[in-house]
Design goal:
mainly alpha, about 75% helix, membrane, VanZ-like, transmembrane helix, VanZ like family protein
Length: about 110
């Protein structure tokens, strides 16, 4: 989360030219997909709360959605940057794809047992 915050705090005029259209959306989706996975793994490794362990995919996705929206609102105050609903949607899609993958993977794993 800290890396995403630092990257989103860089003023807009310091970013290099994008190699192709929608490159920034791809970066958003990848970063928030990775964040969703890391939060999920954190909840899976803890042993203090069965609730967080059992609902780790949903909780990780929810945290990423909220953080993505907050991150976009934060960019209102960064020079040369502005909040963009399509960036927030890319964040949600990245977290959503990883969440769906984890649901599918966990379903297949429990079905084999």
């Amino acid at each position: 989360m800290g890396i995403i915050f630092i990257l989103s705090s860089i003023p807009g005029n310091y970013f290099p030219e994008q190699p192709f259209d929608l490159f920034d959306k791809l970066v958003h989706a990848c970063l928030f997909g990775i964040l969703t996975y890391l939060i999920y793994r954190g909840f899976q490794y803890q042993d203090k709360s069965a609730f967080f362990k059992n609902f780790s995919i949903a909780i990780a996705f929810l945290i990423c959605v909220i953080y993505g929206i907050i991150d976009e609102l934060h960019q209102e105050y960064v020079p040369g940057r502005s909040p963009d609903i399509t960036d927030a949607l890319a964040d949600i899609l990245g977290g959503g794809f990883v969440s769906l993958y984890l649901l599918f993977f966990n379903y297949r794993k429990t079905k084999r047992r």
